[in-house]
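Methods — Computational structure assignment.
A single polypeptide chain was analysed. Its primary sequence is given first, followed by the predicted tertiary structure written as C-alpha cells.
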Amino acid sequence: MVLTRSRSKQGLFAGPLLVVLVSNYFVYRLPAIPVPENARAVVIGSLLDLAIVAPLLILALTKKKGFSLKRFITFMVMGLIAAKFIIPADYFEPFKFVPYAAIGVEGLIILAEIGLVFLLVKHLPGIIKEIKKHQTGSLFAFPTLVKEKVSSHPLITIVAAESLMFYYAFATWKRKPPVGENLFTLHQKTSLLAFNIMLIHAIAIETIGIHWWLHEKSIILSIVLLIINIYTILYFIADIQVVRLNPLKMNENHMQVSLSLGKRMEIPYETIQKIDWGPDAEHFNLKSKGLIEFIARDFEEAKPHCIIHFNKPLKATLILGFEKEVNAAAIRVDEPEIFQHMLENKRSLPLPK
C-alpha cells in the first residue's frame, strides 16, 4: 500500500515533466503546430519551461534528496543545455549565449566550493591543535569542529570524512586502544576484525590477479580498478583502527557509540525514553524503520543486548559523513552486565547543570 502511494506521488510529477519535455520538442517539429515567423516568444516560453518548470518538477520527484538552491541551479543549467538540442538552431540563434551563461554560473558555484576546501586546509592546524588540547577522540570531535569553524556544506562534510579515513589508515598505528571504567568494546568477542582482515587479503589477491590479466586488455581500466581496490583496502584498514580505538564511551551527560567509519552517534541520556534488555531486545525486529544497529559483524547471527528508544529523533552519522534521523539504537557490547548497570545509573542521576 505504501509502495503504491509512493509510486502514485511520483507519477503525479513524472507525468507533467514528460509533457513539458515532449511538448517543447514537438512544438517546433509538428506541421500541425505552426510556429510564427517571429518565434522569440515561443523560444522564451521553452526556455522558462526547461530552466524553471522542469527543474522544479525534478526536485519534486527527488524530494527525498532534499530541496536546495544548489540542486535547483544544477538542474536549471542542465535544462538550458538541453534547450540547445531541443530548440532548432534557427530559432535558438538569438539565445545561443544562454547555455554558456548558465555553465558560467555553475562554474562559479564549483569555484566557491573549491574555496571552501582551501578554507578547511587553512583551519586544519587549529582544529588538530584543539583536538590534542582537549584530548577528545578525533572520530567525533573532528567533524564537529569542521562544521563549527569551516562549513556544514556537503562537500566539506565528505572531505572531512575522507580525511578521517586516511588519518586512521596511516597515522594511528602507534596508538593503543583506550581503557577505562566508562569504556565498552563492541568487537572483542566477535570475528569482526578477523573478517575485515580476510577481506583485505582477498582484495589484495584479487587485485594482483585481475590487474595482471586486465592490463593486457585495457591499461586504463586496469589502473582504475587498481585505484579502487587500493582505496577499498585503505578503507578496511581504517575501519579496523576505528573499531579498535573508539569503544563505546559513557560521558557525564551523553554516550558516544560507533562501529566503523560509517556508523556513529551521540546519545544524550535525557533523550532516552526506555530501554529493552534481554529477551525483549533479542526478539526486537532489527529491520524496524528508524533503527540503527551497533552490532559487530560475526560469522553467526548476533543479537543485541539492548534496544534504546529515544523520546525524539536523533542524528546518526553514516558513510561519507551523511546524516539520518533515527528513533532507536540496537547495541551489543562485550560486557553487557556492567554496561547495563552503568547505563541505568547514568539515567537515574540528575543531569549536570
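Note: The chain has four domains: 2-95, 118-170, 192-244, 248-348.
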